[in-house]
Amino acid sequence: MRGLFRFALPALLALSAAGQASPVLMISLDGLRPADIIEAEARGIAAPRLRALMREGAYADGVVGVLPSLTYPSHVTLLTGVAPAVHGIANNLSFDPLNHNQMGWTWYSQDIKVPTLWQAAHRAGLRTANVHWPVSVGAEGVDYNLPQIWRTGEPDDRKLLAALATPGLLPPLEAALGAYPLGIDESVDGDAARVRFAARLLAERKPDFMTVYLAGIDHVEHHDGPDSAAAKAAIARTDGLVGALIDAARAARPDTTIVIVSDHGFAPVTTDVNLFAPFIAAGLIQIGADGKPTDWLAEPWIAGGTAAIRLKHPDDAALVARVRALLETMRATPALGIDRVLDAAEIRAAGGPAEASFLIALKPGYETGTDPAAPPARPSVLRGMHGYSPDLPAMRATLIVAGPGVHRHGALGLVDMRAIAPSVARILGAPMPDAKIAPAF
């Protein structure tokens, strides 16, 4: 883990930093594995637009992501060029040990601790737009913002989004295009509707920098598993949506550079493991008569293939020792599928959650369950998962870039996810001093 980001990328360092600034359309395809496009024909996947973009520009053999390899931490790294330990978004869900926040996610950009590409572009005098990018509620530097947010999935969520979007932006769009999808809708159909809104923004507002997030591939891979027929169909349909966005962007601004990214890979999963029960049995989580937590000293902050262990009093040496001993016992329990346990120093070295005193890394095939009353292990409901250690090849993400801002064609090898934001910043002509990794394209 200490050497996670220490791989040589001489080809990347040779890329030119010169050139005139150009507009950028940055599209995230949640969960898209690089080989599903690089080897699309061999895998039986129809992806002509993404394949054509690869031939036109450059692509990574894989993007080495962040710890944990989850959607929200990864998308903030894609916007900032720094790891979760620095930017502050370390999980999809807020840490909520007493379940008071009703499954609240880290939707709010005010929790990002460093400047984003949106802010850098805005400071450079550029127009910016966003459709559904994670952690975009209240995002500074976004001129036209349709942020990602939901609560109940009921119609009131539409009112919530309308209140949080850029004032006056949504009503005329909905008058022309119909209802904007609920934020909780992660289907490919939901993506298709959002693409219509993004295409209209590209045509009417002509932003210099725009981010668009599509969730459908990830949604299907969780439900049916990577390599499933349903996942291949989702990729094929999403390829068409990407083509529509590319066409809209280039019609509005012919000099647009297209940047396709994903946030993580995917692994098949068969087993849910209950990491909460050992903490309850050890008296580290107190449960009331109604089955709800009433107090805690240490608790897993679950993240799919990993779980950060947070302590109520992290400076309490006796508590640290008590939790360490419990984790050693848990690691020796085969049913829990634990591959390794990282301590605080190892987590920091990997750029993982700064709030964690320990981190459990599960073996592929195992995922963190959500029910503290479940057995230690049981068959999983989902068929695919991520969140594992980013040094696993299955967790590698996708990068495809093409346009006048790109000065190298063909394969780029392995790319550090932290190099993507400074690369986009270079193309935009918008400096990002907090991003320390050299541009990748």
Automatic annotation (TrEMBL):
Pfam families: Phosphodiest (PF01663). It comes from the Bacteria. The keyword S-adenosyl-L-methionine does not apply. Coiled coil: none annotated. SUPFAM superfamilies: Alkaline phosphatase-like (SSF53649). Residues 1-21 form the signal peptide. Gene3D superfamilies: Alkaline Phosphatase, subunit A. This is Alkaline phosphatase family protein. It comes from Sphingomonas morindae.
